[in-house]
Predict the structure of Glycine cleavage system H protein.
Amino acid sequence: MSLFWGNRTVGILRYALCTKSWSTRHSARIWNPYRNFSDRKYAKTHEWIQVKDDVGTVGISKHAAEELGEVVFVDLPEKGIEVEANSTFGAVESVKAASDVYSPVSGQVLDINTKLQEDPSLINKDSLGEGWLIKLKIRNPQELDKLMDETEYLQKNQG
């Protein structure tokens, strides 16, 4: 009986994996696990930017958050200021160290993550989501071409 259920389970899984609706949505994840599904770009200084229209959301990478340790304070700029690519716009302090944060592109600060003032540990909990730092109106979209995609960034910072 267990052999029958074992073969049936394999058959059900094979069907699920080979049906057109499932395989067209998920086949890239099965056949190419290293494919880049993220639309984020990364700077060498460990900041990421995710762009929608001409607004970029900026944060620090998961790797940087792990290296920093428990984040206890975040210093962010005021809304409306202009920042240049590769220039400092704030700082992140942890129990281990303090680190400047650099803008991956040039633009005007449209918004800051005020939640970080109350709970800086959001960076540790979700650095790629709720732990974002600022939103920028991008001035020069060509600067995005100089940044790494997620695959390049992860390969460079593994280990």
Remarks:
- The radius of gyration is 20 Å.
- The chain has a mean pLDDT of 83.
